[in-house]
Amino acid sequence: MRLAAAPISWGVCEVPGWGLQLTAERVLADASRLGFTEIELGPPGFLPVGRDAIARHRLRVIAAFVTAVLHQPERRDAELASVEEQARHLASLGGEVLVLAAATGRDGYDVPASLGDDEWRSFFEMLPRVREIASRHGLRTTLHPHVGTAVETPDAIDRVLQDSDVPICLDTGHVFVGGGDPVRLARENASRVAHVHLKDVDGGLAKDVRERRLPYASAVARGLFRPLGDGDARIAEVISALRDAGYDGWYVLEQDCALTAAPTEANDPVRDIARSRDFARAHG
Question: What is the pLDDT of residues 190-205, one digit of tens each?
Fold first, then answer.
């Protein structure tokens, strides 16, 4: 199993007001101590510039989560320029995968975008443009279904699978919270999966988010995402299905959390990351 870390497992997130943001030095040092040798980039500007600063911790960057509004033609030039800048930076660090989320244009992930036909048309016209930018920088593009974006629900995911050939980042947590079945997606569409984000999910909190009774960020702070094996997303079955299909890409341990105070022995995210690491390795 090619297992990598991600800063969001330490509560580092691009959403304003998300919570306490730990330093890059702390996250990189922890990741190295936990035995990781690869990590995702995290929010723009989080990790230090240049490979050497990251390599000091015996780590390298393999991917970056990049948001872009794909369904609004009037934003096309600005969004593509932003993708270009982030792709250039990721490539300069030796990255491999641009993980694209179809943003709504709002801050946060509480309100998804339900696209009309014209907006879907713009969305599908933009995808090749993004992929061309990534390819010029030596990167592969994967589309990340994500709560509070234009691709959240099973219907939206199915439309992407049917009407495009873009590879998918299978995020087990976001697929589950959005109402989908990550095991079914892994079994039936393994050939489209080119990157994986592993997170387990509390089913009750997921239902509250799905039905918009609880804001997404509040649910995360209350423990929406659980250590692998502790939730309801059937992570072992996902890994098994992908393994059986011959998947050989990255598994990124992405256990989203939000910190309200500096980590102590009682709330240090390292403990849950270690548990999830061990679960993934035992089943991979």
Answer: 999 999 999 999 999 9
Nearest to 100 by CA among 158, 142, 159: 142
Q: Say which range, 11-25, 27-41, 133-147, 231-245, has the weakest mean pLDDT.
A: 11-25
pTM of the predicted protein model: 0.96
**In terms of Cα–Cα distance, which of 274, 194, 178 is closest to 229?**
274
Neighbouring C-beta atoms of residue 23, cutoff 10 Å: 11
Strands 193-198 and 168-171: parallel
| CB contact at 8 A, 277 and 34 | yes
Question: Which structure tokens are listed for 257?
Answer: 């959390």
DSSP-derived secondary structure letter, 110: S
CATH fit for domain 2-283, picks 3.40.50.300, 3.40.50.150, 3.20.20.150, 3.40.50.10170 = 3.20.20.150
